[in-house]
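If it is no trouble, can you show me the amino acids of a protein and the tokens describing how it folds?
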Amino acid sequence: MADTKRETERKYESDDSGLPDLTRVPGVATVLDKGVMSLDATYHDTADARLAASSVTLRRRTGGSDAGWHLKFPVAPGVRDEIRAPLSDTLPDELAALVRSRVRDHALLPVVRLRSDRDVRHLVDADGRLLAEVSVDTVHAERLTGTGGTARWTEIEVELADDGDPAFLDKVDKRLRKAGVRPSASASKLARALAATAPDTTTATTAPRTPATAPEAAPKRKHRSRPAGKPVTAGDHVLAYVRAQRDALVELDPAVRQDVPDSVHRMRVATRRLRSTFRAVLAREATDPLGADLKWLAAELGLDRDQEVLAERLRSSLADLPDALVAGPVGHRLTTWAEARHAGAHGRLTGILDSRRYLTLLDTLDALLADPPLRKKAEAKPEKALTKAVRKDLGKLTGLVTRALDLPPGTDRDVALHEARKKTKRTRYAAEAAAPALGKPADGLVKDMKALQGLLGDHQDSVMARRTLRELAAVAHAAGESAFTYGVLHAREEHRAERAEAALPEAWTSVTEDLRPWTT
């Protein structure tokens, strides 16, 4: 069973002169000598260094107190999440799944072996509490691929204790610098090893920076060349947006598999943003099939996300009720229902993330970015092409909202408002993609769409909540329990929906006033 640890550390160059007196670091009462340990780690990656390109490390290590498999994801400079699994001869399935969005079908191979003699010190305060672990590591690196180069170096590593104050590392840093110790030029031992043992060490200074999810080489589609660097054309802006969302899918995949809070929501948003890609810029013969797969993925993510939102809404509503209005084990039944639904939805979702269709979708996105199917309009200045695309979405949204407002309250109106909500999201994401090129007008549109989305979303959540409350009430009644409280909650949800519908005409009028520059 894997467990996760947040690792906050800093690395320094060492000239083999040892450590300065660290008792002079403010807050340190004692420096405990914990002895020397021998560590032997083999790092794994694909032949094209997909993990290294993402600053992800995967190793099998023996020696020390945490022997086993270690998978590290970057969080911030000097901060990584380390996921550990017990020592075994082969990579545990649970860790293999967490790198699948990056690795796909490529084999993981041993690429570097690091053998280290680690001289460890513990910095503790007056109460004996561990503040940080400082080690002097003498490292021997051996490249296991290609020509098999080797390298040796010594470095100092300072790792913050669990739940420690990151500001303490600044105090240690000040003391080390005063003693002449300087920060390491490499972000990690692996990065230094890859650079130092590269076949051509005259040009290798950092870990390989190949695309994290680069597809196999394919014949290039003929299209006009685009300026490199800062986006200039409409196509540049769209591709930059697509690239950012593709990266979000790849990076959020492990978090979704681990059931990290809000990760499903963020991944679903990235999927929907990708679906907002402008057809005026990219060829439809390429984007239509991709759009169908993105719609499928968004729907699968929605099963878990919608369940999460609904459960939180019902829990909150129940908590707001006076005790006199709560009859029977409503809280227990709601919790049991939510946990069972979430477990089922999450289990299904992890299966989706292992599916051939999903992995092919990621490959297709890579191929699109490597050889973009740009239309002629993609070479135009962004203002005209992107404005036209946003206007098209706004026209469809206006029709949907107008139709919904003309319908009487009831099921048909609920469905129409839900369709308007979905188009509001699509318009918002289109405006987000255009914002770098169009500036304030697009930013203002994003703000308006978020407000409208919130109102329509509250209405749709109420529709789903009422449906669930009727189902729970039927189950409770069949079990001989009172259904009174479910009826009270149902009535409150009806009132919330009525308020949302009553507020919509005025809200839409306000939005349409802001939309005049887009519609004229």
